[in-house]
Specification:
Blueprint (H helix, E strand, L loop, with lengths): L2 E10 L2 E10 L10 E6 L11 E3 L1 H9 L3 E2 L1 H10 L17 H26 L6 H7 L1
Parallel strand pairs: 1-5
Antiparallel strand pairs: 1-2, 2-3, 3-4
């Protein structure tokens, strides 16, 4: 039996609340679990102590028995200092896509052309009005 340490969702619509549980990997997300190991309330501010509560001793016991934490629970454990920081597999996630790169390049070219035009206009001497000179004479 493969054991996972994962989140089980509770709470009402648009008001999520999660329990950190040890469960059989084949059980449904919000269904049967073996033991409750903590809670996570994403609605609280990030600096709140009540946002993530973990029973670290129980979690370490389950990990010693072979339970695998999910990605999100592993991040909670890293923040609590229980696990070492792991390398993330999705390094390219923050990188913009192909179309976004093309749009950024076009914007840069347009800004460069506008800067060139402004520099050329500033470098060109201002034309003097000959009509005013003629009327002054």
């Amino acid at each position: 039996m493969a054991i996972k340490i994962r989140l089980a969702r509770g709470g009402s619509k648009k008001r999520p609340f999660y329990r950190v549980v040890a469960a059989d990997s084949r059980a449904p997300r919000d269904g049967r679990f073996i033991e409750k190991l903590g809670t996570y309330n994403p609605l609280l501010p990030k600096d709140s102590e009540d946002r993530v509560k973990l029973d670290v001793e129980k979690i370490q016991e389950w990990i010693a028995k072979g339970a695998q934490p999910t990605d999100r629970v592993a991040r909670f454990l890293e923040a609590a200092g229980v696990r070492d920081k792991a390398e993330r597999a999705n390094l390219k996630k923050a990188e913009p896509g192909k179309k976004a790169k093309e749009r950024a390049k076009e914007r840069e070219e347009k800004a460069a052309k506008a800067a060139e035009a402004a520099a050329a206009a500033a470098a060109a001497p201002a034309p003097e009005a000959p009509a005013e000179e003629a009327s002054a004479e």
